[in-house]
Write a structure and sequence with these properties.
356 residues, alpha/beta, Nucleotidyltransferase, domain 5, 5-stranded mixed β-sheet, 12 helices, 35% helix, globular, binds adenosine-5'-diphosphate, binds the ligand CCCC(=O)OP(=O)(O)O
Length: 356
């Protein structure tokens, strides 16, 4: 049998996740947390590169893993230019783009450089899979009402596409023949519509429901007033909308479990806000149905919030009229990366090459 051992790396805002897979099976995984205090020593995110690399190397050494034993390295895709779904071979153009001109600053922008640095001395390849910038929107779905301002897709594609593929595999369905709306319910929420094997429409975190961290879609004129109020720098306003909106703005926590504890203790505002979030999620799911003229076969709820029966019950009550609802909780990013690159190693998929 061919070597199917894959090193998976996923640098996130608050942790570096590392895992080793043989085929579909995880051998071990670790999530190394980074405190705010530790990260505040770095002026910009990319300055953390050497620190994160040594952590990964130490972790591999601790587990007795030699780099030459791997068939490939799989890295979370960062804020690349608009790309296709699936695998991309990490190359210098990708690494430089993510270093110097990414669409957004995020720790995942370092992933491909880390992967390349680990893989290339051994002559093995590094890949990303289903980056956040996969853009397969139908031209008509990408339109907005302001000429020259199209929608540019950005979502939790690694998890949503893996959830859609897993659901089809488990139910003996052909992915390319099944219309599915998949909602990633995590710290941020994005929802996409899968049809004819592509993600042809979506609701982004900045357009749709509020979430634990995100304010979601706000009335645009109000946002303009906020931006010109003199109260915020651009960075402060972005943080308010992207990282300290949603549940954090109401309760000071992004942990839905804590909000649900308040509800259990009779907090009416907490119950009202959770119902509001469920309604906003259901409305955003429904918003994607016209793109396939209502022919939605399944709705899938995934991500960390999908562990909450209270939340998924509320959503189902409001949206089950549209299509059967399946729940695949968790963010499953490490497994999705490993399985994606495994398909490349098994020649079931061909990796794309990012070019200028
Ligand atoms: N058992 C649970 N019940 C309710 N909420 C949960 C549960 N487990 C995780 N969560 C919530 O899921 C969210 C994180 O989801 P996740 O998909 O891991 O996030 P991200 O998209 O940021 O990676 C947090 O708000 C967390 O409180
Ligand atoms: C919207 C796609 C990427 C993203 O925002 O990820 P997090 O929710 O993990 O920050």
């Amino acid at each position: 049998m061919e070597n199917e051992k894959i090193l998976v790396i996923n640098p996130g805002s608050t942790s570096t996740k590392i895992a080793v897979y043989k085929g579909e099976c995880s051998q071990w995984s670790e999530s190394i947390p980074h405190s705010l205090e530790e990260l505040s020593n770095y002026t910009c995110i990319y300055d953390q590169l050497e620190m994160r690399k040594s952590l990964i190397q130490n972790c591999l050494e601790k587990h007795g893993e030699a780099m030459e034993s791997f068939a490939a390295v799989a890295a979370r895709g960062g804020n690349m230019p608009a790309v296709h779904a699936g695998a991309y071979e990490v190359n210098d153009y990708m690494v430089n783009f993510l270093h110097y001109t990414p669409g957004d600053q995020h720790a995942s922008n370092m992933a491909s450089q880390l992967a390349l640095d680990l893989a290339s001395p051994q002559g093995i390849k590094a890949y990303t899979y289903d980056a956040v910038t996969v853009d397969e929107l139908l031209p008509v779905a990408a339109m907005t009402g302001l000429k020259g301002i199209p929608r540019q897709a950005r979502g939790h594609n690694l998890n949503t596409r893996a959830a859609a593929l897993t659901f089809c595999k488990n139910h003996d369905l052909n992915y390319a023949d099944t219309n599915m709306i998949v909602a990633h319910l995590g710290g941020g929420i994005t929802i996409n519509l899968h049809s004819e094997g592509r993600m042809i429409d979506m609701v982004m975190d900045q357009e749709g429901p509020f979430s634990p961290e995100r304010a979601g879609g706000l009335p645009t004129y109000t946002v303009v007033d906020m931006a010109y109020s003199g109260k915020y720098t651009r960075e402060e306003l972005m943080k308010r909308l992207q990282r300290t909106g949603g549940l954090i703005s109401y309760f000071g926590t992004s942990d839905l479990r804590e909000v649900e504890k308040l509800i259990e203790n009779g907090d009416e505002e907490a119950a009202f806000v959770e119902e509001g979030m469920a309604l906003a999620i259901a409305k955003s799911i429904a918003k994607l149905a016209p793109t396939v003229e209502g022919k939605v076969d399944y709705i899938i709820l995934t991500g960390g919030l999908a562990h909450s029966k209270r939340l998924t019950d509320l959503i189902q009550k409001k949206i089950a009229f549209l299509a059967p609802v399946a729940i695949l909780p968790g963010e499953n990013e490490m497994q999705a990366l490993a399985e994606g690159i495994l398909r490349v190693l098994r020649k079931e998929e061909t990796a794309h090459i990012l070019q200028p």
